[in-house]
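User: Is it possible to get a 3D structure for a protein together with its bound compound? The compound here is hydroxy diiron-OXO moiety. I've pasted both below.
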Amino acid sequence: MVSKNIENALNEQIRVEAESSQIYLAMACWAEVKGLEGVANFMYSQSQEERDHMLKLIKFVNERGGHAHVSELKAPNVTFKSFQEMFEKLYEHEVYVSESINELVHISLQEKDYATHNFLQWYVAEQIEEEAMARTILDKINLIGNDKGGLYLFDRDIEQLTINSAASTGTV
Ligand code: OFO
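Assistant: Yes, that's possible. Here is the predicted structure of the complex:
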């Protein structure tokens, strides 16, 4: 059974994951209309992953005797000055999500809710990976800058990253 406090904190995280999914969906759309198909596919798959993170939380809250809430979401940015800016936002957002997960872990320890604490370890590990991936991509795009040829190759590379990460999470 989750306490009211934990239930509210988990519901807040459900909202964060749902917003993450929308943020990456908007990035996918922008990349698609700009003609970078590899980047668009990467963002569509990130968006799907965030939705899965949200669903995992929803199931947990409901199974533990709470009530998962589906709430109103903040509208995401739909345009960007450059791909560099877009990937900066992606990295910043992942850092924000990690902080939010850390806060949840902290609350679960305060409440001595070890079941929730154990459940959250999956998110802690996931955030380490996602932050590292976002950082690697950002480093690459910073090197490329506005070079069209570099961007073309980057688009091809990121497509491969999407396929590999989908294979490792078992979604293909
Ligand atoms: Fe990448 O954010 Fe979910 O957990």
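The first helix runs from residue 4 to 33. The pocket of hydroxy diiron-OXO moiety is lined by residues 17, 20, 50, 53, 94, 97, 123, 126-127, 130 (CB under 6 Å).
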